[in-house]
């Protein structure tokens, strides 16, 4: 269509140029003739860019959705085997929150209250932002390079102890510590029980050893570290709590991974999830139990963290109080200044008297 | 020899060289420009080669150290870093690559906008020199063992800003400070 319009425009442009024609000459022409001689270059460009943007948006949007559906379909079998409900409603497996954010859900299994699956993808639908973020992330640390991510949060419905332990991929582990409050409470240690591309981050060796069940150990492969970010058992928040309520324990198991599409990689994630579901059963049946000393240590570290938070809170309060006091004092001074000289003198005398009395009292004590 | 001493030596020599050169002459100017750009390209290639080497070695040994707080960013407490040798090395190389681009941008401003030519002469040799003297290049390209001064984490020479802000910019690697900083719960920054 455009080549056709273009040929008209170029043909007529060679004959007549809109800008060269006088008002009278234009007035003579019919509307159609005027359209023919008008220079439409800017309009073509605008339409062209708009269309390109729309096409890129649609392609990126579709690409992201494909990634999500591929992942969910690969895990479907496992979830249907374990849960009464997989998906946000009987006919939808996921909700599209935006072109780069999706979420899914599963519920209805013994010992597990729910599983939340959230996807955060690269802004493929917005090509310019995507390119810009990718480029900027190399030059500044304040821009994170866009990544495809899936976080699977398993919330057990059983009572078990508070503790933090995680198996973390060595690739990017410092960032995981930086962005996860609970990981920054743990000690990092290498272990020959897991592939050397992973480390344990846990509050005590007791937890990392007992939560590494046989199926979980087998599911972890050396190359999984390239996409798996971490598998974490935690009762503390991801973001550093800003209120006292934020320290309230919330036990859950988090599997965080880059969103991959390879069959083998997806199978590894399935194996890990299956191992974790079984692990929750072991926790429920008390097959996995922890030593009392280790649990006591956890209680203590939680108390220390809360005390730290309280201390900061008190400091802030003290600062606010000091500011208010200073303000009151200033107001009082201003009030006195506005009074008549005689009254000012009276107040001054009173203050002096007070001071004198205080000094005398001190002397008496010393004597 | 101490790189700082040789840097001053090179600077003095290049100052004399740039005095001898007739920088008004367009042909000489062209050669100076080509020399500058090729030196930057060589430095960049050295870094990229190092980067490839680091990636292919894939050394996943865990590396822990404690960074002293960055007063400019408003930090007050030391920060534990848990990383791998590979990731540490990549970070070092990337910051060097970034510095090549920053110096290119600076030179672009000085030369194209302000019309200075002398810095072109001075910067050309020193960029290659600093590339060959970088710790990370020494380890991966020249095969110097990573011990002594080249033991990771590298000790940065105290900079001018450190004296002003009171931070030493130093890293601690002793067991006690790592253990206390590691579990201090300083993570959990809000992610975008």
TrEMBL record, chain A:
Swiss-Prot/TrEMBL keywords: Coiled coil, Membrane, Transmembrane, Transmembrane helix
Matching Pfam families: CCDC47
Membrane topology reported for the UniProt record: Single-pass membrane protein
Lineage top rank: taxon: Eukaryota
Gene Ontology MF terms in the entry: calcium ion binding
GO cellular component, one term: membrane
Protein name: UPF0674 endoplasmic reticulum membrane protein
Keyword tRNA processing among UniProt keywords: no
Coiled-coil stretches: 313-362
Compartments reported by the entry: Membrane
Chief location of this protein within or outside the cell: membrane
InterPro entries recorded: CCDC47
A GO biological-process term: endoplasmic reticulum calcium ion homeostasis
UniProtKB/TrEMBL annotation, chain B:
GO terms of biological process kind: protein targeting to ER
InterPro entries: SND3_fun
Pfam families noted in UniProt: Pho88 (PF10032)
Gene Ontology cellular component annotations, sorted alphabetically: endoplasmic reticulum; mitochondrion
Keywords (A to Z) from UniProt: Membrane, Transmembrane, Transmembrane helix
Regions crossing the membrane: 28-49
PANTHER family: SRP-INDEPENDENT TARGETING PROTEIN 3 (PTHR28112:SF1)
Name of protein: SRP-independent targeting protein 3
Organism: [Candida] railenensis
